[in-house]
Task: inverse folding
């Protein structure tokens, strides 16, 4: 089966611009998660979808971040406007159940200059 | 909230050596996972291990949930084992990550 796909793999944007990251989970996985690792810090949870509903968005840093999962399939994470501190690697994961069985994508490395 | 600590932060070994990585967590968790981030940045799920011991080839993991720690063993290290090893505790439907152990295997 295909894994979790994220694109772009890299993105370099200027401060103030908008960037949209996309994640395609494993087909049939109801649970989709976004995590990120900013430079030198630990990987942190951003949010969790169950199908198209946001189950937990407690990790979203501020209202410049907007995540959607239309139709319970792929998800997008938009950062608008981007700030320098948003630079880091954004990971997406999916799982069939709530606990365990996570499969991660390769991540999107975002650089804001 | 739950704290996850990993040790050592860095480890440099010669090819063929064995290693033990440790993960401590501060409270009971639903699950504990080990990941390997390879040099290309990919996070590979190694073990899903809430308790007990599991083995996969040269790698094995043990979680003692009552004592709130997990160990990852790597035997006969190869250069391809290099990278960062993370443990993550599954709590309230989200993973809480340790800072990772950066492992370098020298040929």
Result:
């Amino acid at each position: 089966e295909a894994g979790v796909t994220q694109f772009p793999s890299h993105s370099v944007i200027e401060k103030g611009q908008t960037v949209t990251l996309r994640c395609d989970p494993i087909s049939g996985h109801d649970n989709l998660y976004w995590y990120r690792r900013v430079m030198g810090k630990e990987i942190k949870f951003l949010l969790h979808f169950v199908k198209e509903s946001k189950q937990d968005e407690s990790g979203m840093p501020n209202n410049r971040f907007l995540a959607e999962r239309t139709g319970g399939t792929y998800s997008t994470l938009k950062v608008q406007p981007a700030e320098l501190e948003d630079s880091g690697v954004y990971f997406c994961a999916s799982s069939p159940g709530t606990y365990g069985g996570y499969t991660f994508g390769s991540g999107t490395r975002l650089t804001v200059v | 909230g739950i704290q996850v600590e990993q040790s050592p932060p860095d480890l440099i070994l010669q090819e063929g050596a064995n290693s033990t990585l440790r993960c401590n967590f501060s409270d009971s968790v639903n699950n504990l996972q080990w990941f390997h981030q390879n040099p290309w940045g990919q996070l590979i799920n190694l073990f899903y291990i809430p308790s007990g011991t599991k083995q996969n080839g040269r790698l094995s993991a043990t979680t003692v949930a009552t004592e709130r720690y997990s160990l990852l063993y790597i035997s006969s290290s190869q250069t391809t084992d290099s990278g960062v090893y993370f443990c993550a505790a599954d709590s309230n439907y989200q993973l809480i990550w340790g800072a990772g152990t950066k492992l370098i295997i020298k040929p």
Summary: The two ends of chain A are 37 Å apart (CA to CA).
